[in-house]
Each structure stands twice: as structure tokens, then as C-alpha cells.
Amino acid sequence: PLNLQQRGYRAAVCHKIKAPMEVGDLPSVEKIPKGMVKVAVHSTGINFADILMVAGAYQERPELPFVPGFEMAGEVMAVGEGVTAFKEGHRVVGLLQPPGSYAEECLANEKMLFHLPDSVTYTTAAAVPVSYGTALLGLTRRANLQHGETVLVTAAAGALGTAVVDLAAHALGATVIGGAGSQEKCEFVSSRGAQHTIDYSQDSIKDRVKVITQGRGCDVAFDGVGGKVFEDCLKCLAWEGRMLVAGFAGGDIPKIAANLLLVKNISAAGLYWGKYAMQNIGVLRQTVEDTLTLMEEGKIKGPPQPTTFKLEQVNEAFKFIMDRKSTGKVVLEIR
């Protein structure tokens, strides 16, 4: 249980499921466990998984009370026994398991930390690991996207969507069709590298893909929305197309009619990037390292400037995302 009396550092704490978080003081950890790194958090990215977790709707439920947040960027304060890759003062970006990055300090496993290039700000870095790691793993390992193929991306103006657009268009040489829920968001998606867009508040996904691809369909559909949007994407796929299931932000988990897979030799693949932390951490690390390298070399745009909120505004930040006002990533500025 969290000790909320002793002063140490500020954190946003979830005391009760489906209730607003409270910012309070937590005691600073003085003895760093073996293999762990204590980080002064400068910025932390907000992911949809965080919102689901606080609502009690995520597949993993931490014991109450808990501090949310899976990804952060900051500066190393101290290291535990056995840590060799990092030392005090190093700029880092990393992942937390269990969560805890909505705070001025956090403990991260050495294996889940990455050196942050000087050219990348903490704010930008906090928008990288989950979104870009998920996007790169999905496009390469799960969908085997090839140069010259066409990829359809739903929720393309969101944090994950903008990463998919960026990597597919600029690093992997694909033709990108970005779907979003307004004309304004479609213009943003075009600015991120998509050659075509679909405003699915106005137009049929299936009809627009048919026109854009001259009846052929798309090779890969990358969907994190679910529901009818997923069903429409499935019908848009070309022969030997690949359907990526990255989440259900719309709240509706669809069922797949297996005959649709059969008649066009379609593959459907799940995409749970964070699980690689337990199953194959080398794969997870490679996606983040490759992304940081691509950013440093100027081969991808990197995340658009995130929308930022202060730690005390964490509940407003969640509402901002839930009201679908965000484009790209939303980041909490801690320091």
C-alpha cells in the first residue's frame, strides 16, 4: 500500500476505480533495488491503456491505490546494484512495469530504459516508446509490410495512428491511407505523411479505399478502433491482405467472420506490444531503439508536438482525450 503521509515527491494517485485521480505526496525510495534505476521524471506520455486502467476496464488491474503511467522521459537520479548501462545524470526514456510514471520520481528496470539522444527533448521522447514501438512492431513483425504496399490506418490522427503513418510512409516506403473522424484531422494526417485520407464521419471507408486503390484493396489494415470501423477495414483488404488488431478505442469488440479470411487468403493478427516485456524483451527493445535511431538520422518525422498538461491537470488531460480533441500524443509535463 502507498504511504501518503511522508513527504517525498508528487504523484497522481488512483484511489478508486472510475473516480478522479488525486495529486499527493509519496515517500521517496532511498534504497534502490537490484537492477533498478531511480529516475527524475520530466515528461510522461498518456496512453489509452492508462485511461482504461483507471476506469477498471484494462486487461490488467493493479491493486489500489496505484500511480498510473507506462512511459516516461527524465534524468537518472541513482542506480541499484548491478546496473552498468546507466549512471546519475544520464538522459533516458523508458517504460514501467508495473505502472507509475505519473510522478516526479519512478523506479524503472534497467532493461526497460534507453539512452535519450541530446537532439530529442523530454516532451517528445515521452511520446515515443508505446506509440512508435507498437507501430513499428505491428507493421514489420506482425504484418510484414513490404515496400510499395498500401496500408490503411484508422484513428490516424491519434498517438498510435500518427506513428503508423510516419513509419509506414517514411521508413518503410508504403502508400498510406489515413482514416480520421473529421476533415480537420484528415488535413493533420496528410501533414504527417499520408498520401490519401478518409473522413469516415462523411465517407464510406470501403468505397474510398476501392477508389484510391482502383478496386484492388489495401495490403495491410492497422486498426485500433474496433466495431464497424474494423469490419469495414476487413472488407477493404486485397488478396493476401493482413488485418492488424491493435485495440478497441470505440468500445465495441468485433467478431471476425472466418469466411472473409478464407475467400481472400486474409490473415488477422493481434498486436499487444507491451506483452513483449514479459515474453521477448529483446523484440520490444529493438522497436524503441530502431525508432530513436530513425529519428536521429532524420529518416522519420518523429512524434508531432504533443499537447501538454501539468501533473495537477491529469484529470483534464484524460477528459481531453476522451472527448476526442487530441491529435498526436498527450503528455504530462512533470518538471
Automatic annotation (TrEMBL):
Residues 24-332 form the Enoyl reductase (ER) domain. InterPro entries: ADH-like_C (IPR013149), ADH-like_N (IPR013154), ER (IPR020843), GroES-like_sf (IPR011032), NAD(P)-bd_dom_sf (IPR036291), Zn-ADH-like_protein (IPR051397). It comes from the Eukaryota. SMART domains: PKS_ER. One of its GO terms (molecular function) is oxidoreductase activity. PANTHER family: QUINONE OXIDOREDUCTASE-LIKE PROTEIN 2 (PTHR43677:SF4), SHORT-CHAIN DEHYDROGENASE/REDUCTASE (PTHR43677). This is Enoyl reductase (ER) domain-containing protein. The lineage of its organism: Eukaryota, Metazoa, Chordata, Cephalochordata, Leptocardii.
